Amino acid sequence: MKVEVVAIGTELLLGQIVDTNSSWIGEQLALAGLDSHYQTKVGDNPARIEEVLNLALSRSDAVICCGGLGPTQDDLSREVIATVMGAELVLDEAIAARIEAMFSSRGRAMPRNNLRQAMVPVGATPMAQQPGTAPGLVCPVGDKVIYAVPGVPYEMKQMVEGTVIPDLTARSGQSSVIRSRVLRTWGTSESALAELLAERIDHLDDGGNPTLAFLASGVEGLKVRITAKAPTEAEAIAILDAEEATVRPILGDIVFGLDDQNMEAVVISMLDERSMTVAVAESLTGGYVAGRLCAVPGASRVFQGGVVAYQPRIKFELLGLAEGPVVTEAAALAMAHGARRELKADIGLATTGVAGPDEAEGRPVGTVCLAVAGSMAERAVTVQLPGDRERIRQFSTITLLDLLRRELLAGELA
Amino acid sequence: MKVEVVAIGTELLLGQIVDTNSSWIGEQLALAGLDSHYQTKVGDNPARIEEVLNLALSRSDAVICCGGLGPTQDDLSREVIATVMGAELVLDEAIAARIEAMFSSRGRAMPRNNLRQAMVPVGATPMAQQPGTAPGLVCPVGDKVIYAVPGVPYEMKQMVEGTVIPDLTARSGQSSVIRSRVLRTWGTSESALAELLAERIDHLDDGGNPTLAFLASGVEGLKVRITAKAPTEAEAIAILDAEEATVRPILGDIVFGLDDQNMEAVVISMLDERSMTVAVAESLTGGYVAGRLCAVPGASRVFQGGVVAYQPRIKFELLGLAEGPVVTEAAALAMAHGARRELKADIGLATTGVAGPDEAEGRPVGTVCLAVAGSMAERAVTVQLPGDRERIRQFSTITLLDLLRRELLAGELA
């Protein structure tokens, strides 16, 4: 059963709205085990909408057509779908009454325009869900089908969950499910990761189930996604478990978390288990490390606070650094100890470096010194990071927290 | 000149990533006055990528193909484009050397996989911009063209701005341009804004040029976008100027900036003009205000640093608050003065409040106290903000900085 998504709206092509609807629908199709090979965006032009719908019907079994069901002249989906079906549009009195009732319940008269929304191609069936004024329509075309749903996200979602997915599942007669698991890693490049897993991927390519894919996600880490397809959820999860057990020993300690578990959640949880508290001193990250840490649910047992020492003066006055260069491992360590001391935490973290646009202290943009300090041990590294200010900030943060994670695993910090 | 966008990647179809690249490219095409009628997403499957590229070339003059230029086996764009061109792939020694140099500058050996990225179809030209390891390629197909750009947003954007748009403009020899201007506002709701401008929008609807649209953008403010189309840039800008002159008096002082000028850039620039410095004390925003301020180019003349006083203890010890409740305007003012004093700045800013999930000090989630303090005046407000932790953080930050903006305009702070 192949399903594709067509999103209608000139504003999508102009980039005035990001098409999150198609992404969400794509995810629902994948979770239901339905194949989806194409997604198309097309503007509010009847000839082009018709062309796109006909192409989609020619290569897929079902099309979800999202948007263009509003009350205005540039809402064209109803008319075009009727043309594709070779059917007339007729007024559906029940829908007209329902729309009129919505307006009168809010003490308003229905604008005449909204009657357009009650026009239904002969042979199409309105969907039961109708949270707004736009009805969704199930429109058979030969042995295939177009589902017309509105572009308003919460209306669309009710109809896709309530009608489209169940109808597709019934039509497909299948019951297979797709499930994914993400291993989050830090400490190697995407291509080095691909080399580590090359043999495993070659091996899997024969069968295609499960599959492995990589995704670089900034401060969220470098993700390895395992995807499995099986007749039941239990079998899909068994495949994921087996693949995770195969892949983990290959990846080793670069794996820091699973699925939604990001680096800050991992270190907060490790610190919490050890009843340890943490404070940060930040220069080039400017509060980003603190912000990431305190966004973790439950951070308040662990995270004390931080000092954003953007001006060197504050490093000397508030954190007690000796005056001198501030982009060095020694300065990072002194900042980390300053944070520990001044904010009374077990562990201090620090970032200092050159965020750009100009070099500083003779060191190039992207030079970053990171430090972790405890009562028993300390550790600093210097890294050279690529990218713009935002990327340097994200990479510095996850690299610093990964350093903390490794030191906590080693167990000698405090 | 018709241009379409093809985004490559199974993860886009599965909804694991939202395709913001195509939206951004669509916006650049519109701004350059280039027509764009279709955008397609297709997975990592060579036959389907080839089919989509051929279809796009059959109905458009140029295709921007985004993604699939990475170093791994499932990065297929180079191979498929070579097939569509009817050309061989050959190793480009200059690109290979450039990629190798990127790795060695970070003290690492280039994985063999990355050599795949130096393969170029005969007849294609690498783009001058190459911020990452993936080169962009200009690939002629008869009198049409495919632009291959990577899926990593900041790499893609440099290439689209630096090569693709100028090349398309040169090829099109066209003259009509679309220009937009954004008035950024803060201090009223989207529906109140729509009511303020309802009469003006009705008036414009007859002609359709310029157009007005609204966009709520979190910490970036509530945007009013004016869009004008004209034969020349000068005429388009004249239309924008006239419309801005009409709309500004209607909106009044809720307009804080234009286009890319966000609230933190506005206040940094106002402080810089007045030779004033600023420091922050943050509780529920956890470093977010500091991070936004220090991301502004030129912030270093103005922004001193901050204290993230996540635990109440740090408010008492580091910022000198009297022990007692911390979600009050008095506490916010004491924090703002503490930041001024301890970080030696002219102006102190502070946030304290209830980020959730639970209420605190008997005040509900979303209660936020914000303060601005100078040597001559101080001001605090309490606001009740909607949404989740992230939205509360964003709204607190822009509301606090807007408070500072209004106090600077009043001119009595210091």
Summarize the topology.
The structure is a homodimer of 414-residue chains.
Chain A: E1 3-8, H1 10-13, H2 20-31, E2 38-42, H3 46-59, E3 62-66, H4 77-85, E4 89-91, H5 93-105, E5 119-121, E6 125-126, E7 137-141, E8 144-149, H6 153-172, E9 177-185, H7 190-196, H8 198-207, E10 211-216, E11 222-230, H9 233-251, E12 255-258, H10 263-273, E13 278-282, H11 288-294, E14 303-308, H12 312-319, H13 329-342, E15 347-353, E16 367-373, E17 378-384, H14 389-410
Parallel strand pairs in A: 1-2, 1-3, 3-8, 13-14, 13-15
Antiparallel strand pairs in A: 4-5, 6-7, 7-8, 9-11, 9-12, 10-11, 15-16, 16-17
Describe the model.
- The structure is a homodimer of 414-residue chains.
- Chain A is α/β, with parallel strands linked by helices.
- Chain A has three domains: 170 residues, MoaB/Mog-like domain (Molybdenum Cofactor Biosythetic Enzyme, Chain A), CATH 3.40.980.10; 82 residues, Alpha-Beta Plaits (2-Layer Sandwich); 148 residues, Alpha-Beta Complex (Maf protein), CATH 3.90.950.20.
- Chain A contains 14 helices and 17 strands.
- In chain A, the strands form four sheets. Chain A has a six-stranded mixed sheet, sandwiched between helices.
- In chain A, β10 and β11 form a beta hairpin.
- In chain A, 48% of the residues are buried.
- The model of chain A has no long low-confidence stretch (mean pLDDT 91).
- The interface between A and B is large, with 83 and 88 residues.
